[in-house]
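Data availability (excerpt). The following record was deposited with the supplementary files.
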Amino acid sequence: MKITEARLIVCSPDRNFVTLKLCTDEGIYGLGDATLNGRELAVASYLSEHVLPCLIGRDPFAIEDIWQTLYRGAYWRRGPVTMTAIAAVDVALWDIKGKALNTPVYNLLGGRSRQGVLVYAHANGKDIEEAVDSVRRHMEAGYLAVRAQCGVPGVAGSYGVPKGGKPYEPAERGLPGEGVWSTERYLNFVPSLFEKLRVDLGPEVHLLHDVHHRLTPIEAARLGKALEPYRLFWMEDPCPAELQESFELIRRHTTTPLATGEVFNSVWDAHELIRRQWIDYLRMSIVHGGGITHAKKTADFAALYHVRTGFHGATDLSPVTMAAALHFGLAIHNFGIQEHMPHTRLTDEVFPHEYSFAEGYMHPGDAAGLGVDIDEKLAAKCPYQRAYLPVARKLDGTLTDW
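Predicted structure:
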């Protein structure tokens, strides 16, 4: 079997996606997600100009060798554009291999380690009462774990809170928007949200919260300590993690579990965090972290240090990545939880898939390969539209981490 064609499908069924389709001389094709939110065309160009011509004629079963060639052979290693491009190729190759062997991808990774993949949903509200109602509705829908975000009084456009009653989607058409941020108001307010959630909804539901990189280490330590009585499943991205030692200070002051890494693209971004046991969950996604091949190596390393996975799963990742994450999460031993933001109906129509949700868990399905396809005719009716993630400024106008 040889790769005979490699092409990109760039479309926008309610949001932008870049999809790689690798075809073989035996009529089998595989799909890979190449979406990098707000920088989609950079990855598309990297693939079309520098990667795809090198794949023609290659054996699609040589997944490890192709991965090493794309990583080491480029000389310029890592970075979100490079690793997203590698991931797209890698996931498409796993899809081809599963189809060729007539088995789901999870069987190629060692088979099931569990019956289903625990997922968490996003609940939010403009105030505490609305956020509590949102968490309750998700529990009634069957979710066992829910991330709770809430508007902060005096902070317009708080992170994670949708506008106009629509589902939350941070990427916006046109040039980047600007939000306002106040660390002081946020720190004083957030514990009251989780106190109310525990009083009203009880101790059983797993509660999560995303800080979204907005605190300094000592501020994050203060918040983690304040949230301890409410037994969070995790506190996510408490501060930027370029300086991995920052998490040592946070860990020293709180027993609230820590999760980070959705902006990571290599095991080296989390090497010290894992080795020093400064985090509990690694959030690096398959699409931005070099694909299934690199994710498996990273998860095996993390398992040595009692660190579990908690992969990013927002709607800026296509159903191709969701399927890959579910196959991966079903197979590996140190799986923790998987983020689940349902895509819009149009996105699901463009990417018909086998995966499903029931009673708090998702399953990738038992179709050969990933179990995801793409309707290219429908995708062609949804052209790319430039969109950016917003930026944030403090009350005095200083640009800060969004």
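Summary of structural features: The first helix runs from residue 40 to 51.
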